[in-house]
Design goal:
Elements (H helix, E strand, L loop, with lengths): L1 H9 L6 H8 L11 H13 L4 H17 L3 H17 L6 H16 L3 H15 L13 H11 L6 H22 L11 H28 L8 H14 L6 H14 L8 H12 L5 H14 L5 H18 L8 H21 L12 H20 L3 H14 L12 H19 L7 H4 L2 H8 L7 H15 L4 H7 L3 E7 L2 H25 L7 H17 L3 H19 L7 H19 L5 H17 L5 H4 L11 E7 L4 H4 L5 H13 L6 E2 L8 H21 L2 H27 L28
Parallel strand pairs: 1-2
Antiparallel strand pairs: 2-3
Length: about 775
């Protein structure tokens, strides 16, 4: 045995053939590169005798180690190239014979202190990662490569170009590890926390630095940064996240949160928002709610952190909700809003105490807490917009239940704290209601929601009253009429589409609460601390009611309310300030002007126009362009032309109208029946005072006739009326008891009328 080994060492011709083939691929001068002809012979031999693959790989690894120790890096590169070609040429069934030697060789190169060797090893590993294997390997481990590639991503080499190359290689190496292991359940579990805690921070470090330095140029000229750490990092990060299954999301997101905490990256809208935008766009859509839950939990965990940190997390939540927008934020929808409302209440407490901890050691400012509160309110609106209508209704009821309602729930904490909480929660409610689109009024304003909401209209705080008016208007307005009024457009042509059944149901629901709403409007208009915006909000609410619920009863009630308001301002018994009187006069003028634009009669429009022109000359302070704005901006008297698309019932509209009015209405409807696009108008052809005077005159004539006329004349008139009534009743009874036509076409003999039948005594009670 000793002689054999000695001869093999001394005589090259006696060495095994695979060793001779391996030695032949190395040239005398390493700069000449791999000897291709000899490499083909080695490949052919390896394919012909696959049982020798493990020996070939072991000898190549031994030869590479020897050259590496002698610092002959040219031959090291040749050896690595030979191993790569063997890997690519071998069949999948026999590749495991090569892999162990190949991976051990890569470890040697990665442990060296030469950057170019690290890059060489990474490139070889990436090629190996792209090879699909059919045969699983139970004992293969990639822990070393995860650790080493992550370390390369943090390289701080003094040369910038070399540093970037090392980092790019590290990122590509991690990408190769992910590709090699993520789809094979028998391989190492790359989603374990110990691996994610190395991979994710390594990627975020490169993404963070390049997003700070080159974010503008990268977005404008991405081709200039091809192959840069930023580009490679984003590609690798997205590939990692898109492969994450349901049970792996939390392990992938937790290191992101830890990295942002440890490097104080929550402040502002920079890196944290960009990072979670990548996450939300990369993961599978059905898993997006898991990211939201992670962020909510992290927000609770940081409830004792500075306001800037909490605001940053809330801002990320808002952006994530907009990206998700799948109609659901997970199985616990109300828990999302409960967490946000809890943060809002804590922020109010911190603002009042001046500290964001119980020990009173860490100070906070009102400005920072208000920024946080605005961010939370915006986020509540963003989340609500992703929900279906029925869940938005539940959210509004949920928020309303959290508000300390006067007379029902006591204010929490001090009076100032209770007031601030009310304002914050009402602002949150306004954010939800502004984009609420309900198909019927009962869903938008149920009694359980409307009653506590109306109780706020009588509070002394002007901000709360204004918020309540805005919420009511948003929920009733379905055609964005309030935005047209705010825009100051002088003339508007608005097409309003209503389903007749839904419209009648809405009117019925509204009439149940109408009188209470009118009472609150009446009382709210006389509050001493009301400002310009309050009267503008009252006018907007009344205008939306008159358009969205264009029913004669509703409009008549609104006119009565306006007349009552005007009468209140003219009464000396009411203790109203000059500003209140001017504001109510402006409210009445604006609403009556709007109402007169809805249609005939022209006399009403002419009268209102004359009054407005007179005020413009003599009393401009009684007009809305002065009273509705802190800074007058021109006329706010808006003319509306409303096109209602639904079938109008002529008989119902002609109720309580004279015969001439009914005939003219039916004629007008018959002209416009073809397109069913009707202009709704209300008959106000007679002045209220003239009508009352005529009714009073008729009553006096009746009284005078009964006092002065002879008895025979009075009896004759009453008898004539009785005879006329009896004849009408007979006609009605004839229609009721008329028998149906017989099949022969002849009328059946008339039966005895019911009212002439004689029944037995036992049937009479």
């Amino acid at each position: 045995m000793y002689l054999k080994h000695g001869l093999c060492g001394c005589c090259w011709a006696l060495r095994p053939r695979y060793k001779r083939l391996v030695d032949n691929i190395f040239p005398e001068d390493p700069e000449e590169g791999l000897v291709k002809a000899n490499m083909e012979k080695l490949t052919f031999f390896a394919l012909s005798a696959p049982e020798k693959l493990d020996r070939i790989a072991a000898y190549l690894s031994e030869r590479l180690t020897r050259e590496l120790n002698r610092h002959r890096y040219g031959y090291v590169c040749i050896a690595m190239e030979a191993m790569e070609q063997l890997l690519l040429a071998c069949h999948c069934q026999s590749i495991n014979l090569l892999v162990e030697s190949f991976l051990s060789t890569l470890r040697l190169l990665l442990e060296a202190d030469k950057p170019h060797l690290h890059i060489l090893a990474t490139n070889s590993f990436v090629k190996f990662a792209n090879i699909e294997e059919d045969t699983p390997s139970y004992h293969r481990s990639y822990d070393f490569f995860v650790s080493r590639f992550s370390e390369m991503c943090h390289s701080d080499h003094e040369d910038l170009d070399t540093r970037n190359k090392i980092r790019v290689s590290g990122i590509r190496g991690l990408q190769g590890v992910v590709r090699k292991t993520v789809d094979d359940e028998l391989q190492v579990n790359i989603w374990e926390p110990r691996h994610m805690e190395q991979i994710v921070p390594a990627l975020l470090v490169n993404l963070q630095q390049h997003s700070q330095n080159d974010s503008g140029l990268f977005s404008a000229f991405p081709s200039l940064f091809s192959g840069s750490p930023a580009e490679q990092t984003e590609v690798c990060f997205r590939e990692l996240l898109c492969r994450a299954a349901y049970g792996h999301i939390n392990n992938a997101i937790k290191p992101v949160l830890m990295h942002l905490d440890s490097h104080s990256l929550w402040q502002g809208r920079g890196f944290a928002v960009q990072c979670f935008q990548i996450i939300m766009y990369s993961i599978q859509s059905q898993h997006s709610h898991l990211v939201i839950q992670q962020l909510l939990g992290h927000l609770d965990a940081n409830s004792r952190s500075p306001a800037s940190v909490r605001a940053g997390i809330v801002e990320v939540l808002s952006e994530a909700a907009v990206i998700e927008a799948t109609g659901s934020v997970g199985p616990t929808v109300l828990e999302v809003f409960n967490t946000l409302l809890r943060q809002l209440r804590q922020s109010v407490d911190y603002q009042l105490t001046g500290y964001y901890d119980n020990g009173g050691k860490h100070k906070t400012s009102s400005i920072e807490e208000k920024k946080l509160q605005d961010a939370v309110i915006k986020t509540i609106g963003s989340f609500a917009n992703t929900l279906p209508i029925y869940q938005r209704s539940e959210v509004m009821l949920f928020i309303m239940g959290k508000i300390p309602v006067p007379g029902i729930y006591p204010a929490l904490g001090s009076p100032n704290s209770g007031r601030m909480i009310q304002v914050m929660l009402l602002k949150s409610l306004l954010q939800v209601s502004e984009h609420y689109e309900s198909s019927n009024l009962l869903t938008a304003l149920p009694s359980s929601f409307l009653e506590p909401l109306l109780s706020f209209t009588l509070m002394e705080d002007p901000e709360i009253r204004l918020l309540v008016l805005s919420i009511l208007t948003s929920l009733i307005d379905r055609h964005l009429i309030r935005w047209l009024l705010k825009a100051g457009i002088k003339r508007v042509v608005l097409s309003v589409h209503h389903d007749i059944c839904t419209f009648q149901h809405d009117v019925f629901v509204f009439m149940q609460h109408a009188q209470r709403l009118y009472r609150h409007v009446y009382l709210a208009s006389r509050e001493e601390n009301s400002g310009h915006s309050h009267y503008q909000a009252l006018f907007t609410l009344l205008a939306v009611l008159s358009v969205e619920l264009a029913n004669e009863e509703v409009v008549v009630d609104l006119i009565r309310l306006i007349l009552a308001l005007q009468e209140m301002t003219l009464s000396n018994q009411e203790c109203l300030s000059v500003f209140n009187r001017c504001g109510i006069h402006a409210l009445c003028a604006a609403f009556l002007n709007l109402l007169s634009q809805l249609g005939p009669p022209p006399t009403l429009h002419q009268h209102i126009t004359q009054v407005i022109e007179s005020r413009q000359k003599d009393a401009p302070h009684l007009l809305p362009e002065v009273m509705f704005c802190d800074k007058p901006r021109g006329t706010s008297l808006i003319a509306f032309r409303l096109n209602y698309c639904f079938i109008v019932e002529e008989d119902r509209l002609s109720k309580r109208k004279s015969i001439g009015d009914a005939v003219s209405l039916q004629h007008w409807v018959s002209v416009n029946k073809e397109d069913l696009s009707l202009i709704w108008f209300f008959f106000l052809s007679e002045d209220r005072g003239v009508v009352e005077e005529e009714e009073r005159r008729k009553r006096m004539e009746v009284v005078e006739r009964f006092q002065t006329a002879p008895f025979e004349e009075i009896a004759a008139q009453c008898g004539a009326r009785t005879s006329l009534l009896q004849s009408k009743l007979n006609q009605v009874f004839e229609l009721i008891i008329r028998p149906p036509p017989s099949p022969s076409g002849h009328l059946a003999p008339r039966s005895t009328p019911v009212y002439e039948m004689k029944f037995p005594d036992l049937c009479v009670y």
